[in-house]
Amino acid sequence: MKKSLVTVLGGFGLILLLFASISWYYNKKIHEKQAILLKLDSLSTQIQEHKDWIEHLTNQRFWYDSIAQNETTYRRKNSFTHELIRQNLSGTFRASDSKNKKNLSARLDHLLLTEDHILNDIAKIGFKEHGYIGKMRDVIHDIEKNFPQFEEQILSLRRHEKDYIMRNDEHYAVSLHQEITLWKATGNYPKALNQYLQYFDSVRSRFQMLFATPHKNHYASWTLNITNIQANLRHIRGSFIRESYALSNDSLKMQYIISAIAFLALIFGSIYIIRNITLQVTRLQKSMNEFISSNYQADETISHQLPKNEIGQISIQFLKMARKIKWDVHLLEDRVSRRTVALQEKNSQLEKQHAEMMDSLRYAQKLQESLLVSRKQLAQHFEQVHVHYSPKNLVGGDFYWMKSFRENGSEKVLFAIADCTGHGVPGALLSVLGMNTLDELFAAGIRNTNELLDSLRKTILRRISSDEEQRMDGMDIAIFCLDKKTRELHFSGAQMPLWIVRDTEVIELNGERVPIGFTYLNHLEFKSEKILLEENDKLIVFTDGIVDQFGKESNKKFGKKQLRYLLSRSGSQNGSILYNRLMNQFSFWKGEGEQTDDCTFMILEPKFTRSRATKNGSSVVSEGIQISTEEVKS
Fold it and tell me: How far is CA 257 from the centre of its chain?
């Protein structure tokens, strides 16, 4: 099989070599033609630039003085240009093109001679200061100076002179001659007028030799000659393009022929190799089937049936590999079986640990809920209470706390709501620490809201930090003290507000931007704000879990702006209606999305003590009636 493959590949290589040789030959010929075309283009460009230069010198009169003054310089420049054109011409045409070269050289010789005549005519004519025109103007200027009485005749002559020079029209020359003849006929004229007329006739003669003589003027002869040279170059260029195109066609035809031969050779060679390989593969497949049917057992007869080439060697190695794979598979199956048993045991242990952990968390949830203020306690001091308390996990870092006391004959209520750092078990631990600390501070006799926050902050910092480490944990908290008799409310806040809904107005008490915990700010103490409540006022307290909740559809936060809008729009409604609308809107906003943080929201309607007169004019105090309480957990 190796010999057959070498034979086919060798034949195909020879075809490719032939293809490359023929392509190289034709590409070489085409490249030579294209090189000549580039040189022809360069020669044509050089001749066109020379043509533009001569036309510019001939048709622009202001050059005539420069040529008259430096005729030798212009002739040398013209000769140098012709020498460059001849060198370019010699480099363009080969010996086989001597006819074209000889023809163009002869035309260039005649062209150089005509250009010498043109430069000579221009130098003789001049323009302002040199040549016949310069001399003619010197004479007429002398006449103007010496014979001022003839100013009118001189101006008429100068007008015909300039018109003839600028327009090269014989009508103006005839008119000038007629005026001079009439002037002479009077007998009163300057003698220098004859010299002026002589110079004018010399200018006229040169203009006629340069432009006016039919079929014999130098400029027309030069134009015809250089136009013929350019036409000849275009004809030669066209012939080279046609030859190059013919070579391209011949090259393309040869490439098609050789490609067809190579394609046929490839097909027949492939068929030949495929037949040999197919035969070997068929034998290999037969041997493999026999080996598999023998349950991967070694058999000398199978080895003898394999082909004596690379495929046969591959087959033998395959047989060895198959037996090794069988043994490795057996080892892997045994290892997987043992690993599976171990994983099942681990999984069982993890499930048991998870169940125990969930039982512990559920028990911790019940313990945390038992530490919160009960609905019964809240109902003793508020007409209506609506609570939405929803930790993100089973336990959370939000808590609310309440204590009541009597002072100066008035019953007062201390109420606080807090959001501890984090959520889950760490947040729950901080919440327990916060509630216990508030209980201790209340038991120590601290009643003012700002003093409670100052003491709470110092105690929390002392308990969670150490000399080696300053922890950043803490809580945000809002706390108020309500005097049920005077309706005065004192509020202090640490990064948490208290909102009061009064009809459609939302009054915001924002507290201070300092947390209960470590801060880099230079904060000395908390302050207390006082406000007098009115009938039907509703106290709104909440943690940031409700305003930071992302909507499932909009992927934006619920926000204080939306909460404030909902409260102001329905603030005059009953507390139950207001609460239900808020919770419905919040549930719609959240959808089935994940809860962002621990969430606590409360609406509290204060219960004030009322006084009424007795028959003897004294007053007695009666407590308000409890309306309803509600706690919603989600």
Answer: 50
Helix axes 2-59, 71-92, angle to 10 degrees: 160
303: left (phi > 0), else alpha (psi -120 to 50), else beta? alpha
- In a 13 Å sphere around the CA of 26, the CA atoms on its Cβ side amount to 18
Would you say residue 589 has pLDDT above 80?
yes
- Enclosing H/E stretch for 60: none
Helix 98-125 and helix 2-59: axis angle, to 10°?
20
From the list 493, 532, 484, the residue with the least C-alpha distance to 513 is 493
Q: How far apart are CA 69 and CA 58, in angstroms?
A: 15
Q: How far is CA 377 from the centre of its chain?
A: 63
- Strand blocks (E) in 421-553: 474-483, 488-494, 498-502, 505-509, 516-517, 529-532, 538-542
Asked if pLDDT for residue 92 goes beyond 50, the answer is yes
Give me the torsion for CA of 341, 347, 349, 355, rounded to 10°.
Answer: -150
Spatial separation of the C-alpha atoms in residues 132 and 61, rounded to whole Å: 13
Work out the burial of residue 85: count CB atoms within 10 Å of its CB; fewer than 13 is exposed, 13-18 middle, 19 or more buried: buried
Q: Which residue has the higher pLDDT, 433 or 356?
A: 433
Residues 353-384 pLDDT 10s: 888 888 787 887 788 788 889 888 998 999 99
Other CB atoms within a 10 A radius of the CB of residue 420 amount to 28
In the DSSP assignment, the letter for residue 550 is B
Q: Which conformational region is residue 612 in: left (phi greater than 0), alpha (psi within -120 to 50 degrees), or beta? A: beta
Cβ atoms of 176 and 161 closer than 8 Å: yes
With both helix axes pointing from N to C terminus, report the angle between 98-125 and 71-92 in degrees, rounded to the nearest 10.
Answer: 170
| Residue whose C-alpha is closest to residue 204's, from 124, 116, 114 | 124
Tens-place pLDDT, residues 377-429: 998 999 999 999 999 888 888 999 999 999 888 899 999 999 998 878 888 88
pLDDT digits (tens, 9 = 90+) for 233-247: 888 888 888 888 888
Q: 136-143: long-range contacts at Cβ-Cβ below 8 A with a sequence spacing of 24 or more?
A: 136/161, 136/196, 136/199, 136/200, 136/203, 139/192, 139/195, 139/196, 139/199, 140/196, 142/192, 143/190, 143/192, 143/193, 143/196
Q: How far apart are CA 219 and CA 206, in angstroms?
A: 12
- Where does residue 186 fall: left (phi above 0), alpha (psi -120 to 50 degrees), or beta otherwise? alpha
More confident call, 502 vs 104: 502
557: helix, strand or coil: strand
* CA separation, residue 625 to residues 379, 381, 619 (Å): 9, 10, 19
Of residues 478, 510, 506, 512, the one with CA closest to residue 582: 506
